Each structure stands twice: as structure tokens, then as C-alpha cells.
Amino acid sequence: MTAQPATPRQAATVLLVRDGTAGLEVYLLRRTRGMPFAGGMTAYPGGGVDPRDGDVDVAWAGPPPAAWGTALGCDERLARELVCAAVRETFEEAGVLLAGTADSVVPDVTGDDWEAQRQALLARELSLAELLATRGLVLRSDLLRPYAHWIAPPREPRRYDTKFFAAALPVGQDARHVSGEADEAVWLTPSAALHEASAGLRPMLPPTLHTLGQLERYPDVAALLAGAPPEPLHPITPRFEKTPDGTWAVLPDGTRLRLVVPLPS
């Protein structure tokens, strides 16, 4: 009997960007080698949806979950979970919180009390709704933009159905290397990141390679936020080909992405 492919787990990933001296920069994490998923690979902050991300008590400002459901092509409940997961994961893995009042963003989240709450989120001792309530803050969904939708191929043992979001680094905050799942955190221009990937210095999975290529077209954060998503949002599932030139991820539109590190056999 043929084994059925694993049901993909819902996940959210955030392309956190800022304006640097050389142009648009994006925040990247290199996942620790030995991680069960994408060990040694460079990726964006993100992770799987937690059941409490759908908590209807999350204080909210900006486009409501129903509007996000339309943008992401899913129901309102899942849209709420994905947006909350994007905000939660960005705080957990980069120390950046996309929250504040209805018309401002919290400027500093670096104190010991903030760190204690970030650790409590990581340990699932605290939910995002509880964190915001204790601080009198609201989730700022208007700081996020839909960007891409990728679903891992059926052959993958760990499958994710991932919505990618774009967000500008809030004024007054700075991303910090706080993720226990990464051994490096860095701001790079998309071109620099892709150059390092092609040179074999920074292995990446196909979604990261492709979205970095899309980011190259934007001169600054304002242009990115105005232009997101860069194409109609639709799920992308790559297939893989091995040729004498290496291993390639082939996208539904025919785009071919060369993978520096061969896929596990």
C-alpha cells in the first residue's frame, strides 16, 4: 500500500526588512545544524501555528481576520492564526514586536521584563493574547503585507503550508539574535544573500531563494510594502530534478532554482 503524504502543518514566515546604506535589507537566520527541519539552512523568522494563535481575545488593529482570509485564500479562523503566528514568531525569533496602540508601535522591547515574556512565549507558558493584554497593546496587522504562499511537496516527511508576510522593522526597535534555533543572524541585501547562496556559502530552501529574487526589484521598504504581494498570491509547490549540473527546484511556472546542497536521498 502506498503511504499517504503527510498533511502539511500551517506556518507563517516574515520577511523583516529595513532601509540600509546599500538599499533594502532583509533579516536572515541560519538554522542550527542538526535541526530536524532545514538544519544549516538560511531562512526568515517563522514557524508553525500554535492553537492559541486563533484566540479571539487577541487585541487587534488594522485589517480584520476576514480581510486577511480573503488576501490569503483561507477562512477567517486560519487567517487569524496565521497573522498571530507571524507576529508571535517575529518576536520569539528576532525580538521584534509588531504591536502597539492603534496608531503607534511599541518603541522598545529589550528590557528584562520583555525578555522574560519572550521566553514564556517560547515555552508556551504565555499566549500572544495574554502578552498583549498584560501590556495594554494591540496586534498591528496593518504592519504586515501578504507576500507568498508555499506548500512543501508530498514527498517531504516534514510538510509545511506556509504563508509569507513582509513587514518593515518598526522605528525604535532592532532585530536581535535571540533565536535558539539559529547560530547566526544577519541583515543582508537580497542580492548579497543570493550571491552567498550561489557560492555555496549560505544554503537555502527554494522558497527563500525565490522570495529573495523577488525582493531584488524593490529599491526600498516603501516600494516593497506598496508592491506586496509581487504577484497574485497562489500556492507554489516545487518539484525536484537531478541533472548532471546539480539538483534543481522547478516551480509551476517553469522557473528553475539551483540547489547548492543536494536533497537527502
Describe what you observe in this structure.
This protein has 265 residues and is α+β, with helices and mostly antiparallel strands. Helices cover 27% and strands 29% of the residues. Strands 1, 2, 3, 4, 9, 10, 11 and 12 form an 8-stranded mixed β-sheet that branches. A 4-stranded mixed β-sheet has the order 5-8-6-7, with no helix packed on it. Strands 13-14-15 form a 3-stranded antiparallel β-sheet, with helices on one face. The longest helix has 19 residues, at 76-94. The two termini are 21 Å apart.
Helix/strand layout:
Layout: E1 9-20, E2 23-31, E3 42-43, E4 46-48, E5 60-61, H1 65-72, H2 76-94, E6 99-101, E7 104-105, H3 112-122, H4 128-135, E8 138-140, E9 144-151, E10 160-168, E11 182-188, H5 190-198, H6 206-215, H7 221-227, E12 235-236, E13 239-243, E14 246-250, E15 256-259
Parallel strand pairs: 1-10, 5-8, 9-12
Antiparallel strand pairs: 1-2, 1-4, 2-3, 2-11, 6-7, 6-8, 9-10, 13-14, 14-15
